[in-house]
Amino acid sequence: MAYITCRDLKLGYDGRVVTEGINFEVEEGDYLCIIGENGAGKSTLMKALMNLNKPMSGSIVFSDDIKRNEIGYLPQNKEFQRDFPASVGEIVISGCLSKCGWRPFYNRSEKKIAEENMKRMDIWELRKKCYRELSGGQQQRVLLARALCAAGKLLLLDEPVTGLDYKVTCEFYGLLSELNRAGVSIVMVSHDLEEAMGHSNKILQIGREQVFFGDKNAYLMSESWKSFHQHHKDHCHQNENKQKRITGYEPDRKFEEADKNETYDAQYRGGDRS
Ligand SMILES: Nc1ncnc2c1ncn2[C@@H]1O[C@H](COP(=O)(O)OP(=O)(O)OP(=O)(O)O)[C@@H](O)[C@H]1O
Ligand SMILES: [Mg+2]
Hints:
disordered C terminus; 274 residues; binds adenosine-5'-triphosphate
């Protein structure tokens, strides 16, 4: 049985529907990317999976193979209190809280897990610092280390690379692939289509209703991808023009260059879970 099975989900707030007709599964070993425009309901869906808000209708069923304390969750940046008055070390190890059960302290192995994940995310030197004194990118690394402490079998990540610099972003994606190869299932909300298409094996695109769920390669052949990708490119170009007007500089033209040699989509298709 799949780790998570969602059937006919309708999600919203105060009687107002955000998205509906959501049907998908997360299987052991999956790397599922959830994509969609701003306001489509991606974070709302992640919160529903974490039982932080209740679906208006439909069902979310977890298999017996996965316990809540084997899931690591990284909420979207804006949802974690930026001035949280605790140290980096305290926040990271709190990812192990659900492993403690009724025990009122962290044991040696939990402290070791926290240390390893702080080193992985390159924040070990910051462990005694107060979270609120850190930059946005450093804070994000703290929250990632915390999610990694909790993730035994499944990681739910809502736009995890927001605020990270290029080097840390690349390392983080590498780490995710490594974890995935080691058997950790990943569900990630992302606006980074390049990454989503590069490493995932399944795609869920949502809008007012579900647009697509299935195999990444099938998605890349679909009309849904063509129009979403085009829309994304147009949006990027608009932003580039705006940036150019403001700064006077020509921004990086990743999408245009890629289109010129027409390898972009082909690259994705071949770029299976490398
Ligand atoms: N707590 C809330 N109460 C009421 N409405 C909310 C709440 N949280 C989100 N919404 C609304 O639900 C809709 C979906 O929001 P959500 O944050 O899930 O979108 P998203 O797909 O994650 O967008 P983004 O890409 O910008 O992160 C939006 O219209 C938003 O204003
Ligand atoms: Mg969101």
